[in-house]
Design a protein that fits this description.
Elements (H helix, E strand, L loop, with lengths): L1 E7 L4 E8 L2 E5 L6 H10 L2 E6 L11 H8 L3 E3 L10 E2 L5 E4 L2 E7 L8 E6 L5 E7 L20 H16 L7 E4 L17 E2 H7 L9 H9 L9 H10 L4 H8 L2 E2 L1 H11 L2 E4 L3 H6 L6 E2 L6 H8 L7 E4 L5 H9 L6 E5 L2 H7 L8 E3 L1 H10 L3 E4 L3 H6 L1 E2 L3 E2 L18 E4 L4 H12 L5 E4 L2 H5 L9 E2 L1 H6 L1
Parallel strand pairs: 3-4, 4-5, 5-6, 10-11, 13-17, 14-15, 14-16, 16-17, 18-23, 19-21, 19-22, 22-23
Antiparallel strand pairs: 1-2, 2-3, 7-8, 8-9, 9-10, 11-12, 20-24
Helix pairs in contact: 3-5, 7-11
Length: 471
């Protein structure tokens, strides 16, 4: 028996490849399935099952392509109603894989079809639990994503409490919990950076598994402080449930090299959004007017999902040389399948063709600190609310990037805005969106809060609410 966790950091997502005696199962596969097929070939095993823990909201799973290419059936738990052929497991149903067994454990709460899979070893003893979004390391799944009809968030939280107490907690302490997500995912609010743990340790450390917690206390704690889910979540659920284009077709469509003239024509005629995935510092130096910067070397897919609300929005790409297919793939992971092509030759070709470029003005943290001592500057903090509340520049305005589309009117047009986040990734995204919306009064603070905290201004102009409360 062999278990491999295939973790994708930008999505904070874990897929699993389990093999025994020449047979393999894949749990919660990513959209691109070639790596699983190649792994099976190298290991000389046959993929026998494709297990899904639920209809994922934060990424498009590869179940359809993987099943089509291998012949392995797709397995969901009770209550699942996909629009394609799948085996709907009964609670407790066993699936033989070589000389081990995978048992379906129906655990409604995060969603009503949520199902964990218990791996029993060669001696029929529980060895591992693939817990999907039911149980994370340090947290449990949020119960607000599958509200339908009369089913409320509190109802789902109640189901989750019962599932955990009746189905999960009675399992042996020594089994390893392998969740679908880790820290950074929007599917929970308190997830650990660790991606697996023993169930016994989670019983001791996970706030939601306290032995003395009543159902009422659980519902209150699990639902308290949940941030609004990203807008693309329901669309990903729909794709996972109803189907989608083959990843091969998506890659072929997106990997289309366009000359500067063809790129410009496509942008004008299709209404495509120009998405620039280069590093923030490169974007600031020169970019195509009205393009949006979301760097590939960051939490790329989640930010695309949060800030581009329509999955059917046509996209034209600016990428670093050689990374075109990677960008198209990572867009497809969250359902953005309508990439029309990329600028061949990048900004060098664009400039050589005499096309217009724009820039984002940047100041160093030291320059900002010096200017702020002499005049009243408008500083805008685009970090998340909890980051701002922990520590921020005194007088800075909190306008989290997550809500920039909804709060556009809150950004002043009559004053120069100095934007910052923690390190510069998010503030450049914000700057690009503001510039595209006609805000020319935008200056990015290079290095963000991390750089500001090292300047003289950190001793006089930072407010830390926690520290103030203690004093």
């Amino acid at each position: 028996m062999k278990i491999e966790q295939i973790y994708t950091g930008c999505l904070a997502q874990g897929a699993y490849f389990i093999q025994s005696e020449g047979e393999a199962a894949v749990i919660d596969p990513l959209r691109e399935v070639t790596p699983y097929i190649e792994k099976a070939s190298r290991e000389q095993v046959e993929i026998k099952y494709v297990f899904e823990t639920h209809f994922h909201a934060d990424f498009v799973s590869g179940h359809l392509d993987l099943s089509q290419k291998t012949g392995a059936p797709i397995v969901y738990g009770p209550n699942a109603t996909p629009s394609f052929p799948a085996h709907i497991a009964q609670d407790g149903e066993a699936f033989k894989l070589g000389n081990v067994t995978i048992r379906a454990i129906h655990t409604p709460g995060h969603t009503m079809e949520s199902t964990c899979y218990l791996l029993l070893d060669e001696g029929d003893k529980p060895a591992a639990l693939f817990s999907g979004d039911t149980l994370f390391i340090g947290d449990v799944g949020r119960p607000d994503l599958a509200q339908k009809g009369d089913l409320t968030m509190d109802d789902l939280a109640g189901y989750l409490y019962d599932s955990l107490r009746r189905k999960i907690l009675p399992l042996p302490d020594n089994i390893i919990v392998y969740p679908a997500h880790g820290a950074g995912s929007a599917c929970g609010k308190n997830m650990s950076k660790e991606t697996s743990d023993t169930l016994g340790n989670q019983k001791q450390t996970n706030y939601a598994l306290r032995a003395d917690m009543s159902k009422e206390e659980f519902i209150k704690e699990v639902t308290d402080g949940l941030p609004a889910p990203p807008q693309y979540f329901p669309q990903n659920v729909k794709m996972n449930k109803e189907g989608y284009d083959s990843i091969d077709d998506v890659l072929k469509r997106g990997a289309h090299a366009l000359s500067p003239d063809a790129f410009e024509t496509a942008a004008n005629e299709t209404g495509a959004l120009v998405l620039d995935t280069r590093a923030a510092r490169e974007f600031a130096r020169r970019f195509i007017p009205n393009s949006i910067n979301i760097g590939i070397d960051g939490s790329f897919a989640p930010w695309v999902g949060a800030l581009i609300p329509d999955l059917k929005q046509p996209l034209l790409l600016i990428t670093e040389p050689g990374r075109e297919e990677e960008v198209v793939t990572r867009l497809a992971r969250v359902g953005y399948d309508y990439t029309l092509g990329y600028l061949h030759g990048g900004l060098d070709a664009w400039e050589k063709a005499g096309k217009e470029i724009d820039t984002v003005e940047q100041v160093s943290a030291e320059e900002l600190a010096a200017q702020r001592k002499e005049s009243d500057l408008t500083v805008v903090d685009v970090r998340k609310t909890d980051e701002y509340e922990a520590e921020h520049v005194e007088g800075a305005r909190s306008l989290p990037l997550d809500f920039i589309n909804e709060q556009m009117a809150e950004y002043p047009k009559d004053k120069t805005m100095y934007l910052h986040c923690a390190g510069g990734y998010r503030s450049m995204i914000a700057a690009s969106i503001l510039k595209a919306r006609g805000y020319d009064n935008v200056v990015d603070i290079a290095g963000g809060f991390g750089a500001l905290a090292k300047t003289d201004v950190s001793r006089t102009s930072f407010v830390c609410p926690t520290t103030l409360k203690k004093s």
